[in-house]
């Protein structure tokens, strides 16, 4: 039996198995086995070639990939929000390569990529799907573009991405697995688990060769999320969902994802909101550099991500700053008093001023 057939069989068995004390262990086992088969398929596909993706150089402070079915309006959108010109036409698969553009917003320079329309079966290589998905993997944010006149597109895309290990709009599950030498599996929970039982956790861990460990579960995860923690190749990418062609429907109808932004790319409606949403979702912050010779540089703030530390700041400076870093002086919200001395691990906040002292 092929891996594909086995995956299908397991999926059916899982759908037909009621969860109760007697089946929990078996369910955990099946889920883990399915995940391993999927990984095998992926590894095989990427070795076969053709899955290397487009050769696009990352530019700007962040990279956004527009993902959507053929003719949803991706090229129309990129032509409106960036300096790029991508061919627009009424037929499907107009865009056959990856077209990069730069969107400037509030001091940030954001690279936006227009790629061929993804379709069902993309992860099997249909419609250049594999290249498309590998570009998506490297993005900081996926802009999911849906057609206001069509239902169910989001679900298809989410599934295609899920099967290649991309988790859109999700954080890594808050689970810590510490392997031990003996003592079996010890589970510590911070809240009540309703979607997975202890039996299932143990079955999944065992299937991954872990028989002794302390597992700390801090959120109400399900089995697939536990598997995500155990599999190494998962990526978590921010998402923004837009519904295009709302001129044809007069707005977003029922059945579209919550929080989706209505736009009409052709008439340029909703695009200012979209630019702001992309910027906010990328969690940018600006930090000002201070030097002895020039003082505070307010002209060119450093674009950083919320949560970034002095270490990240220094890594963006000429190399000798990192090599000869002694400490930094910081003015702003992240410190208790102006000019406070901090180390590399100090977390900066939007608007901070940083002066690096070298050895
Ligand atoms: N009614 C309407 N039509 C639109 C809108 N945006 C784009 N279109 C039309 O939709 C068609 C496809 O637009 P493209 O921008 O080429 O779509 P695409 O997603 O890049 O398509 P592929 O490159 O083939 O994947 C064109 O005829 C556009 O004029 C919109 O907001 N409303
Ligand atoms: Mg196009």
User: How confident is the prediction overall: mean pLDDT?
Assistant: 90
Order of helices and strands: HHEHEEHEHEEEHEHEEHEEHHEEE
Rg computed from alpha carbons, rounded to a whole number of angstroms: 24 Å
Instruction: Specify the CATH architecture of the largest domain.
Output: 3-Layer(aba) Sandwich
Task: Tell me roughly what share of residues is in helical segments.
Answer: 25-40%
Task: Tell me the number of structural domains.
Answer: 3
Summing up helix and strand content along with how strands pair, one would put the structural category as alpha/beta
CATH superfamily of the largest domain: P-loop containing nucleotide triphosphate hydrolases
- Which fold does the CATH topology of the largest domain refer to? Rossmann fold
What is the CATH level 1 assignment of the largest domain? Alpha Beta
Number of beta strands: 15
List the ions, cofactors and other small molecules found in this model. Answer: guanosine-5'-triphosphate, magnesium ion
Largest sheet: 7 strands, mixed
Shape: globular
Note the quaternary state here. single chain
Query: Treating each run of at least 4 consecutive H or I residues as one helix, how many helices?
Result: 10
Taken as a percent bin, the fraction of beta residues is 25-35%
Low-confidence regions: none
Please report the distance between the alpha carbons of the first and last residues: 64 Å
């Amino acid at each position: 039996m092929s891996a594909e057939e086995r995956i299908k069989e397991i999926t059916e068995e899982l759908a037909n198995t009621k969860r109760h004390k007697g089946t929990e262990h078996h369910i955990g086992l099946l889920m883990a086995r399915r995940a391993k088969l999927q990984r095998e398929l992926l590894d095989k596909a990427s070795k076969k070639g053709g899955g290397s993706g487009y050769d696009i150089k990352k530019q700007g402070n962040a990279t956004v990939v527009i993902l959507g079915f053929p003719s949803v309006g991706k090229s129309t959108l990129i032509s409106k929000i960036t300096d790029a010109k991508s061919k627009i036409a009424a037929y499907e698969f107009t865009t056959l390569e990856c077209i990069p553009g730069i969107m400037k917003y509030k001091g940030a320079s954001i690279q936006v990529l227009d790629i061929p329309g993804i379709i069902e079966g993309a992860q099997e290589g249909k419609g250049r799907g594999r290249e498309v998905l590998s570009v998506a993997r490297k993005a900081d944010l996926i802009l999911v573009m849906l057609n206001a006149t069509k239902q169910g597109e989001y679900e298809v895309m989410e599934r295609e991405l899920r099967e290649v290990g991309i988790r859109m709009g999700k954080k890594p599950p808050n689970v810590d697995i510490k392997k031990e030498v003996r003592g079996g599996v010890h589970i510590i929970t911070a809240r009540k688990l309703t979607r997975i039982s202890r039996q299932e956790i143990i079955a999944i861990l065992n299937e991954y060769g872990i028989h002794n460990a302390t597992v700390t579960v801090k959120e109400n995860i399900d089995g697939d999320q536990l598997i995500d923690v155990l599999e190494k190749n998962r990526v978590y990418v921010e998402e923004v969902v837009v519904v295009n062609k709302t001129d044809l429907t007069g707005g977003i109808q029922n059945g579209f994802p919550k929080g989706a932004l209505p736009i009409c790319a052709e008439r340029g409606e909703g695009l200012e909101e979209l630019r702001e949403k992309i910027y906010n979702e990328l969690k940018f912050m600006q930090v000002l550099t201070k030097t002895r010779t020039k003082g505070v540089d307010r002209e060119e703030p450093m674009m950083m991500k919320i949560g970034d530390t002095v270490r990240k700041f220094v890594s963006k400076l000429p190399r000798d700053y990192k090599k000869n870093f002694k400490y930094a002086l910081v003015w702003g919200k992240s410190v208790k008093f102006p000019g406070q001395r901090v180390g590399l691990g100090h977390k900066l906040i939007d608007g901070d001023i940083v002066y690096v002292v070298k050895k």
